Amino acid sequence: TMIRREAGSLAMVVLDHETIRSMVPGRFFRDHKGPINSLDFHPTDDAMVTVGDDDTIQMYRTSSGELVKTLYSKKYGCSCVTFTHASQAVLYASKVKQPSKDPKKDHALRYHSLYNNEYIRYFMGHTAQVVNVSMDAVTDEFLTASADGTVRLWDLRTPACNGVIRCATTPCVASDLQGLIFAAATDDGELKLYDARKYGQGPFIDFQVGSVDPGTGKRPRVTCAKFSPDGEGLLCVAGGTMYIIDAFKGDELMRINVGAETGGMGQGKDAAGATGNNLEACWTPDNKCLLSGGADSRVHVWSAVNGSKVATWGARHAGIPSSVRQ
Questions:
Q1: What's the gap between Cα 317 and its chain centre?
Q2: What is the pTM of this model?
Q3: Helices and strands (DSSP H and E) totals, the chain
Q4: Reading across the β-sheet that carries 150-155, which strands appear in turn?
Q5: Which ranges of the chain would DSSP assign to H, the alpha helix?
Q6: Percentage, residues of the chain above pLDDT 70
Q7: What is the mean pLDDT of the chain?
Q8: What is the number of other CB atoms lying within 10 angstroms of the CB of residue 43?
Q9: What is the 3-state secondary structure (H, E, C) of 104-138?
Q10: Distance between CA atoms of 13 and 250, rounded to whole angstroms?
Q11: 3-class state of residue 153 by DSSP
């Protein structure tokens, strides 16, 4: 089942395959003047936030689709938006168009109050584009991953960085929904799990994702990672292919080549943009299905039980859907 938000109430909906196949877009939003690069739903409140390459932040009421507020981040841009525990406060990365002489300022993260349109705090430390922000489900701590080859650990209550993990490539991070562990993709095809309370002791397990490419001799880089709602599975996207990993043992349970299954070629990379880095996927709330964009510019739903395609939602997007959330 899933919870559907309706005006003034919450309704339970059975999320079976028949229901999923019957789903169609309820409304189109055209408030951004350019591509939307990130979005997030608040886990409990009636709120969604989007940020775009037009340097705007749009806040919506999910039950009605009403645009509640438009804010701006003109100087430094915005990307990788995520709600904090408050529905009127978000955290997002910069996306500068004209770099300055101070890369730490260019790539700072901003803790922004949507209520009064004020910055609560800045988090400076990264020296290249932040590609991933993951908020802890329980505490005020959060993780960031950057093209500077580092994962950084922060706390909303202080601007100081609490810890740094140095990586061999552009990393990716994900926190579980219980606030106990987090995953960091630190090298091509390599994923490490850390105890969120003892990360200074290093990872307690690491494992490989994907197959070695005969041409490069490397495994594909993980560009998206999401723990399942029950914490038992870990969804990874690498080279345009989705992998389901056992979050306890590191065993690969399933792989779905999104490119091949949606009309693309080239090991699925054209299902994730020219670089293979733009594909995002997510779990449904019941752990049973996965959502992703496809090479045909549509959103596809896959079974997390056997890997079969459950549905292809008919509406086409302007390019590959690269931000998919539930």
A1: 19
A2: 0.90
A3: 3, 26
A4: 130-135, 141-146, 150-155, 158-166
A5: 17-22, 103-106, 258-261
A6: 92
A7: 88
A8: 12
A9: HHHCCEEEEECCCCEEEEEECCCCCCEEEEEECCC
A10: 32
A11: strand
